[in-house]
Amino acid sequence: MRKRAAKVALCFVLVAGGPANLFSQDLSGSWTGTWVRGADTLDVAMRFRNAGGVWTGEFDAERLRVEGIPFTEVAFLPPAVRLRMVGDATTMEFEGRVHGDSLSGTLIEDGARGRFGFVRVAIMPFPLLEEEARFPSGEIELAGTLILPPWRGPHPAVVFLHGSGPEGRWASRYLARRLVREGFAALIWDKRGVGGSAGSWEEAGFEDLAEDAAAAVAFLRSHPEIDPDRVGIHGHSQGGTISPLAAVRSEADFVIGSAAGGLPMAEVEVYSIGNAIGVDSLPPQEAVLAKAYVEAIVNVAYRGAPQEELEAAASR
Question: Is the pTM of this model over 0.85?
Fold first, then answer.
């Protein structure tokens, strides 16, 4: 999986076979264990519940910095297990069985086989409060989740501003919940055009994204459980670069920049794109042409250079 494992898109669980005891008839509750492939062991926590005959679930992985990632589809036919998880780059298939309070079997990822093992645990999770959040930004409506401590406010609050690409609210959930455990409220939301938010992130400039963050700050300041004089912005990567602009627009009370670019965005993009395609690893003559191509992309996209400049660089 890529660094943002919080971008996991689909998980499928199926359980079938003969019951071991009464617990094997019920998947609900908390499970902890590991996924193992080769020499790599990943600690994972899972939670499942049944409401009206419909199973839902979610998982956490501390090492991947993800928490509360929802399973898209869960089915339970006691006690055999089949789990499918589709990530950004790989798909994992799990098959196993429930034996009382244990859940174990085999997994396959990219053709390589491994194993998994879990035990049922009695965990009382930290009782954070969550509520759906919807707020306008210009002519579009954005959607997210407001996470609150379990005690009465007003609370200081943090808006989480996205990195580049189609990030949803789940990308920031891990860090957001940890801040809430320290007494902050946190607003995580879907970037425009992602999840429940309208609009298109692909057609949005940094000014638009900064306005979205300012709208999120305004939403928090209007909430009865939030201290309007202690609302700030946490921005990661592209969001960290945009966060000072968003802070000016919103008059935010503080800014946290995580992996933010310290150069003008055009220069940051030259480095980012060049690094992504491996310019420095190319033979010298190819590297010169590749760097010119990258600079042409940025000149057209950021500086308004004519499209012909990019086409000529691509041809070379």
Answer: no
